[in-house]
Amino acid sequence: MHPAPLPLYRDPRTYQILVLSSLLVYGVAWLDLEVRPGQALLLLSTVLLTQYACTRIWRLPAFDPRSALISGLSLCLLLRANSLLLAVAAAVITIASKFVIRLRGKHVFNPTNFGIVAMMLATGGQVWVSPGQWGNAAYFAFLLACLGGLVVNRAARSDVTYAFLAFYLAVLFGRALWLGQPLAIPLHQLGSGAFLIFTFFMISDPKTTPDSRTGRVLFALMVALGAGFVHFVLYRPNGLLLSLAFLSPIVPLLDRLLPGKRYAWRRARPEIPETPLLEERRFA
Amino acid sequence: MKRLQLLLAIAVLAASTGTALAFCGFYVAKADTKIFNKASQVVLVRDGDRTVMTMANDFKGDPKEFAVVIPVPTFLQKGQIHVADKGLIDHLDAYSAPRLVEYYDENPCERRLEALAAPSAPAAGAAGDATSARAKSLGVTVEAKYTVGEYDILILSAKESQGLETWLVENGYKIPQGASRVLGSYIKQGMRFFVAKVNLEEQSKLGYSYLRPIQVAYESPKFMLPIRLGMVNADGPQELFVFALTRKGRVETTNYRTVRLPSDLDVPLFVKAEFADFYKAMFTQQVKKEDMRAVFLEYAWDMSWCDPCAADPLSSEELRKLGVFWVGDGAPTRGFGGGAQDVFVTRLHLRYDGAHFPEDLVFQETGDRQNFQGRYILRHPWKGKDTCQEARAYRRELPRRFEREAQTLASLTGWDVNKIRGKMNLKASGPAESDEPWWKSIWND
Asked: Can you tell me the mean pLDDT for A89-99?
């Protein structure tokens, strides 16, 4: 028996979808985010179609567009490509990675993260991320919405977001203190929309973070250090995305060393112990 | 038939914005002369980890007073430093500058169009020796000493900022308050300091009356411009033009918003006579609109052509001199008029100060090869006397069009719309059919 699906308003993903789509509309209409409406529509339809196709191929009980929509919206906000074909390829890879790259019944990579990094590395610069294209107003509105989401959802796994925020702030402010830089510099470094999407929508993805709390905090620490390494030692852009992508394969190892309860989206009532069907847990 | 003729390079409207360089370095005057650093031009040639940086400078003071300190990511051998011809940057500036195009309305009765483009090139602004023992005791190492062209150059490394500051002061450089902290952060990041002064003897031998741009070539993953030092003794906001020459595509800042300058807009005809003022006012207005937190994209184009051309594309030889190391060495070139291929030019323009740009500029090369240019359009109304129905409709529409142009100009530049209307002499142009009652134009018969 399936547990009853969570009502829309109680599913944290509904809130996330609302936040990301308002941001996208704002970005297209007011900011020069260089997101063309055509490309956004194409990306969104591609992720949904891919999700649908994979649902059929892997014979999942039901087609659930919510996670795919979140991936698609994040792609729209982050991904820049020279051709629509590359954008479509990124969208397909993003969704397909959930179904194909799995270990111990769990997908290994956050789909959006994998889609973007794989395409960036494979195309040699034809696909890129523009992390600086966010106005101040958009940034603060988005920040509020993200923090609001933490409160509204009390999502079971926001601990990884808190831990990552703490570690990453420590990296940025620690470096500034060591270099004797004014605090305006690390504050400015935090002022990027890409950083917010990463913190609240990517690393927080409950399906790809370690199962145990200790594991998640450890993972957050490693990703924060990895991002600092890419930015300040290698001097390359996209430190957050690269760090998460390269460290994700460690998650199965962490799960083995520090076992914990597997996460599932659908729960009729949070206080009842999770007993979703195996199928559900594997693919939702 | 629609005939579009672009006549090129006619009106060269100079728009000198009075440049005086010090983007990444600061002027360290030897006397108590107050030196302002307001604007500068930098050409960044980048492919892979290889960078060639050319810094142009419009220093107007006594050459003896000129000294500049620039943090560089690596040690530089003599061969990595070069002095370039200022004309190269002027050409690049002219090629990429915002441009004005001019069209003449066709006779509405004949449906024939004569067009003319008059691009303009608003050139937008475009150490003493110390004993090595003393240097050592301060933790400063003079790693190398060169004379290149009219410049005496030192490459310094330092252990701590206080020592470096003391060394610079003892050697006659005037260090602004607060520089020590910034120097310290660069020292900890392992950067070297490139210190240049003018060698007066060499300068008089060479016979240049102005200071030529300094070029440095280095290999480092850092694709950035250190602007923090330059802000230490800045008196108000500074102006910076960055011309990036790359292979793949457009360059943008990763830590600041890159915004396209408003473009392809119809503006009143009188702008032709004051295009330089227009450009300056528009830029100021856009900076205000973005709360001074954006870097503006003014041009992004494949170097092998232009349309319309404010100036010819740079030749392979010129590009080579600017440091584009991948052209001219057996690599195939195509394009016309000597224009080299495989070079994408990005022109970025920013006005910055410490409050709005706390961090050094960090760049990335994107795969974007879409062309973009700052282009403003003048449309001359047709002055014929024909009285066909189309001509009447055309004349009725004209006042509305002029009004739109006035509004556009006002919103672009922040100029008073009434003054604009006055300058446009709206009443005088064309038969004043705007006094007709509104319903006259409904049925048009």
From this structure: 92
Nearest by CB to residue B184, choosing from A126, A180, A192, is A180
- pLDDT tens for residues A20-35? 888 888 878 776 666 7
Question: At B153, is the secondary structure helix, strand, or coil?
Answer: strand
Query: Within 13 Å and on the Cβ side, how many CA atoms surround B240?
Result: 30
| DSSP letter for each residue of A159-221 | HHHHHHHHHHHHHHHHHHHHHT--THHHHHHH--HHHHHIIIIITT-TTTS-SSHHHHHHHHH
What percent of the residues of chain B are helix, what percent strand, and what percent coil, each to the nearest 5?
A: 30, 25, 45
Q: Mean pLDDT in chain B?
A: 78
DSSP assignment string, B287-309: HHHTTT-EEEEEEEEETT--SS-
B133 exposure class (CB count in 10 Å sphere: 0-12, 13-18, 19+) = exposed
pLDDT one-digit tens code per residue, B394-410: 888 898 999 999 999 99
Distance between CA atoms of residues B409 and B266, nearest Å: 8
User: Per the CB < 8 Å rule, is B221 touching A235?
Assistant: yes
Name every chain B residue with its beta carbon within 8 A of the beta carbon of A128.
364, 366-368
Radius of gyration of chain B (CA): 25
Please report the pLDDT score of residue A58 as a whole number.
87
The amino acid at residue B6 is L
Q: How far is CA B386 from CA A104, A248, B111, B399, in A?
A: 83, 75, 12, 18
Please name the residues in contact with B336: beta carbons below 8 A apart, sequence gap of 6 or more.
B304, B305
Give the residue among B237, B188, B216, B213 at the shortest CA–CA distance from B50.
B216
Q: Tell me if residue A225 falls in helix, strand or coil.
A: helix
Most confident of A40-44, B105-109, B384-388: A40-44
- Amino acid letter, B137: S
Q: For all residues of chain A together, what is the average pLDDT?
A: 82
Strand pairing category for B67-72 and B140-148? unpaired
The single residue listed with the structure tokens 């107003």 is A137
User: To probe the interface with A, which of B254, B293, B348 has the most A CB atoms within 10 Å?
Assistant: B254
pLDDT digits (tens, 9 = 90+) for B139-171: 888 888 999 988 999 998 888 888 888 888 888
Q: Which residue of A has its CA nearest to B189?
A: A179
Q: How many C-alpha atoms does A149 have within 13 Å on its Cβ side?
A: 27
CA torsion angle A214 A220 A224 A227 (round to 10)? 130
Give the one of B189, B257, B369 whose C-beta lies nearest to A134's C-beta. B257
Cα A120 from Cα A11, distance rounded (Å): 32
Q: What are the E-state strand segments in A82-209?
A: 102-103, 106-107, 127-129
- Touching A: B residues 5-64, CB under 8 Å: none
What ipTM score was computed for the predicted complex, to two decimals?
0.83
Entry field: residues in chain B: 445
Q: DSSP label at B236?
A: S
Angstrom distance (rounded) from CA A14 to CA A205:
14
Decide if pLDDT at A6 tops 70: no
Q: Which residue has the tokens 């480092």?
A: B220
Q: Map residue B29 onto helix, strand or coil.
A: coil
**How many pairs of residues across A and B have Cβ atoms under 8 Å apart?**
77
